[in-house]
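Internal tracking record. Fields below are filled automatically when a chain is submitted to the structure queue. Please do not edit lines marked as system-generated. If the sequence contains nonstandard residues, flag them in the REMARKS field before resubmitting.
Queue: standard
Priority: normal
Entity type: single polypeptide chain
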Amino acid sequence: MKIRTSKREIHDLLEAWIFISLAFGILLNGGNLFSLNIIKSVIFASFTVGSGFLLHELGHKIVAQRYGCFAEFRANIQMLVLALIMSFFGFLIAAPGAVMISGRVSRAQNGKISIAGPVMNIFLSLFFLIIFFLANSFGLDIIQELASYGVWVNAFLAFFNMLPFFILDGKKVLIWSKKAYAAVIVPSLLILFFAVNFISI
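SYSTEM-GENERATED OUTPUT FOLLOWS
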């Protein structure tokens, strides 16, 4: 299936990726923008948080378009600027924007559209986990450090988005299927538990 997009969407995705990478890079660097380590931190963030954000949104978009809906990402510049400011104070709320979807879908279809984003984060966290073990085996410390951050971030993104509250994905998934909900929330918790106990960042 061909993914339909537009110049506006590509612009918004790049804008959000840059802001998210900078914000998490600054956060990862302890809120310090003026240090040589900031370059490494931003690169780490772009590969881990950036890829997690992008694939999460593309997951929603692809499934929505499969059901014949209009689906395009729109950045929220106010929230992106807020995230950047907050990163200097050691915390942030990342709400870079959302995939705008229009079209008639059933409860099951809406649930499948919603679950697609967290599922992408689960796969990405497992990918980074494999990279982590490979890097550890070959003594590639910088790659291991990057992969550890990727495991943490994407497992957390999957878990957070599956919380069954407000407009988060989890609420729509739980309304559709308790089994599907458990199939995503449980792996995200297991990976987070493993990361907390065995992987440091």
